[in-house]
Amino acid sequence: MLDYVRKNKAWTIAIVLIFLLAFWLRADFLTSVKHNISHDTKYYNEMVHRLLDKGIYSYKEEVPNARVTPGYPLFMTAMYLVADQIGVEPFPLIRWVQVLISLASLALMYMIAMQATKNKWVALLTIFVGAIYHPFIWTTGAVLTETLALFLLMGYLSMQLYAFRTQRKRDAALAGILLGLTVLVRAEFLPLFVPLYGLFLLQQWRQAKEERGPSKLAVFKKVALLGIITGLCLSATMLPWWIRNVVTLGEFVLTASQSNPFSAGTYPNKDYTDRIVPKPKEMSQEEYAWARLKAGFTTQTWTYVKWYTVGKLKYTYSHMFFGSGHSPIYHAYPNVAYLHILVVYSTIITLLGLLWRWRHPAAMLAVVIVIMSMIRLVFVPEYRYNFTVMPLFIILSTWLGVYVWQKLWAYARRGRAA
User: Fold this and answer.
1) Which among 196, 258, 335, 378 could bridge 67 via Cys, Cβ 3.0 to 4.6 Å?
2) Domain ArnT-like N-terminal spans what residues (predicted)?
3) How does pLDDT run across 303-356, given as a tens digit for each residue?
């Protein structure tokens, strides 16, 4: 490590300066604004006090439930205990810890960029953009799942890419554990490893064919074993949660029992006054949602098709996530939305290019974006849902930028040489 630093002093200094910039922006934000407390944060606060005072794990209720996964509430509980021991308020402590988590996420983004593109300039620009991207700054002040979920997701993806490279069982197991921890914070990432292993299998089949390597069956067995190990370790990480739900609630809950996001997603353009079908009093919220979908796709087909494709995608990705809100609004530089728009739209070009270069390691990042976007289509669209995949957008966007710059530079050099 020390030898690398000595041989790459300028590079190391650049990385250190970017991390110092990232820390300064986050610290300046935390100390210069008044932070709003969202409804979710209030419910989390009540939940933690209920857990500490009465030993009851429940969200919005006084009786045990499984309406939210336990990752973030337990993180908050640990912070409350630490805050009590050192004599400080828990919310400021959580925010400062989230600053450190955000910086760790930048380091993981650097690693993923190197693993996916094998280009150090892409990695450097990725962490620079990540350092100044405002949602990554704003969310450090929000006592919500986003900062922790992003860190764990980046940790899982980095380990998964590493496991694909080494093809070691131990690395596949660690990837499963990290994915399990991610799911315990944000449940929607549960099926993510399946399509990733599917693409990895296709890549390995193509590689074996080109190199006249092992048979398709042999490759399948090896990849399937790694995938099973990841799945089993994911399940082992989730197992205490499953056991708790069976013992305490008398039912198996895979992730969480809250169905509001699915039900709310059945209202085109988020028009909650829409009553396409009447709701009988005895009908549950989930049953009513399915009734709305059936009626919507039958009687208002184009409206519902548009809403469940481009409508929700546009709503999800067209704006930045602002965290819990704060005042006065914090801008480290003017026109902050332009960076978000540039990253999102330039990434579309990269995604289209990866359709032809699907054997490239960066295709794994494209799969994550596509799969998570498809999962989002099931639920109500919110700006906050773009947050956890924005690091991948940034990596693919900077990769495109570096590629275009290198092509233009090479063209200019050939022109001067001629």
Assistant:
1) 258
2) 89-243
3) 999 999 999 999 999 999 999 999 999 999 999 999 999 999 999 999 999 999
